[in-house]
């Protein structure tokens, strides 16, 4: 059989294959985002409290504001981070909507309702210190953080878990380590990004001197924590801007 005859014989089959491929539905590609909104939830170390001469209060130099600066330097005004930290709160309160009701119009709503009303694409979650100080069990903390992560993903948000910075008091820090283990477990089970601040800060030389009291960092440590946050959050922002997340 000549080459010309073979080519003619194969042509209909090739045309049919191309037609089938053209008719096969293609998976939609994620849409690139022009504005990225990030909500940062957590306790007083998210809010940004620092203590000096016996007085403690929120400071503008905190991990969230430093993260905003880093993101702005790389991506400009397309990225905004909202600091929704509330001092003295726990993950169970965020889940149930029982935290400080003065922290915004949706603060008293259960997590699902509050998050559904938020346009944020990325959600940072930072708890553990108050759980350790108020004798909550690691199992309770695990259940709360799991619920927070699952709800966020179900609503189309990208959750990012953060472990707490360590505490100078060895007894409290041992309790906190148990909470940190739960955060790591939730991140692994739910396959969500983790910023392990506890491990990072614990490796710093004389990290206790970077604390303003038994729980709250000085501005310099908040700066270092923000750099760790950026290493995880920055690539997520880039993927959202590119439409690949």
UniProtKB/TrEMBL annotation:
Top-rank taxon of the source lineage equals: Bacteria
- Record-linked SUPFAM superfamilies: SGNH hydrolase
Residue ranges of domain SGNH hydrolase-type esterase in the record: 40-223
Q: Does the keyword Zinc apply?
A: no
A Pfam family cross-referenced in the UniProt record is Lipase_GDSL_2
Sorted alphabetically, which keywords does the UniProt record give?
Hydrolase, Signal
What span is annotated as the signal peptide, if there is one? 1-21
Q: Name one GO molecular function term.
A: phosphatidylcholine lysophospholipase activity
Tell me the protein's name.
SGNH/GDSL hydrolase family protein
